[in-house]
TrEMBL record:
Domain ABC transmembrane type-1 residues, every copy: 82-274
Organism of derivation: Paenibacillus sp. SYP-B3998
Membrane topology: Multi-pass membrane protein
CC terms in the record's Gene Ontology section: plasma membrane
Pfam families attached to this UniProt entry: BPD_transp_1
Name this polypeptide is given: Carbohydrate ABC transporter permease
Coiled-coil residue spans: none
Gene Ontology biological process: transmembrane transport
């Protein structure tokens, strides 16, 4: 065979290489499209209001306005909104993780008549959309005199979440029975088996539940709008929607974008610290 000829094997390799290059370029294009809104958010956040209104808009600001951050806190009660959102999110995470893992442990470790039927009934509640429950919950919390407080937003988290219970239960069922048998022989109570054995070994599942719960509470708007009316109890979602000026009918988009950038920081930090557990398979066994 002459040196200039190409074998079928080399042709196949060249074909695969061309496909890989095409896929790589396509992924770059899709990545740019996905990242562009975030780039535009950062760019708009550090522009002056006059520059924001210019057309056509520019990605790179003519003058970087770092004073927008200070102006945001001076013009609005952004610090108070941030503290309220942090408080509600942390309490919701604690309540969801503890209550959901406690119920999931019972479904995973106990054998009782009707357990499967009860578990199916629990999962069926996931099919109910929030608007169906909105009015009955509103009437209940109003009769309890919980309106304009954080109680309607945080207390339900301590009664578990059907999806979180299902998620943690799947992990608990993968734990070795020998662990609990040995603990039971040593005189460990059922509560201590959950708290000292199942709970510490459930890092991946609990981290996933914590992330989902935090994001759900952090981004919640409808539930918070229903029960919070006083400005000192506003959260980020309510406060940022109230930044629309009724006097000038003009949205301060640069301040809104700065507010959005600061609002994303806790989500990014949470995922960065919990990424190690989040990407792990929650079906891993507790015995190594």
């Amino acid at each position: 065979m002459s040196q200039g000829s190409t074998s079928p094997k080399n042709k196949k390799a060249l074909t695969y290489s061309s496909i890989d290059i095409f896929v790589f370029i396509l992924l770059i294009i899709l990545t740019v499209i996905m990242v562009f809104p975030s780039i535009n958010m950062f760019s708009t956040g550090f522009k002056s209001q006059a520059e924001v209104l210019k057309f056509p808009p520019k990605i790179i600001p003519e003058h970087i306005e770092f004073a927008n951050i200070k102006k945001l806190f001076q013009t609005y009660e952004y610090g108070r909104w941030y503290r309220n959102s942090i408080f509600i999110a942390i309490v919701s995470v604690i309540g969801t993780v503890i209550s959901s893992s406690f119920v999931a442990y019972g479904f995973a470790r106990y054998q009782a008549k009707g357990k499967q039927l009860l578990f199916i009934f629990l999962l069926s509640t996931m099919m109910l959309p929030y608007p169906v429950l909105m009015i009955p919950q509103f009437i209940l919390f109003k009769q309890l005199n919980w309106m304009d407080s954080f109680l309607p937003i945080t207390v339900p988290a301590f009664f578990g979440s059907a999806y979180m219970i299902f998620l943690i239960r799947q992990f608990f069922t993968s734990l070795s029975n020998e662990l609990f048998d040995a603990a039971r022989i040593d005189g460990c109570s059922e509560f201590r088996q959950w708290w000292n054995i199942a709970f510490p070994l459930s890092g991946p599942a609990l981290s996933t539940v914590a992330i989902f719960s935090f994001i759900g509470s952090w981004n919640d708007l409808l539930g918070q709008v229903l029960y919070l009316s006083s400005t000192e109890k506003f959260t980020l979602t309510i406060g940022m929607t109230s930044m629309y000026s009724s006097a000038t009918r003009l949205m301060p988009w640069n301040l809104v974008m700065i507010a959005a950038i600061l609002a994303v920081i806790p989500i990014v930090l949470l995922f960065a610290f919990a990424q190690k557990y989040f990407v792990q398979s929650i079906s891993m066994t507790g015995v190594k």
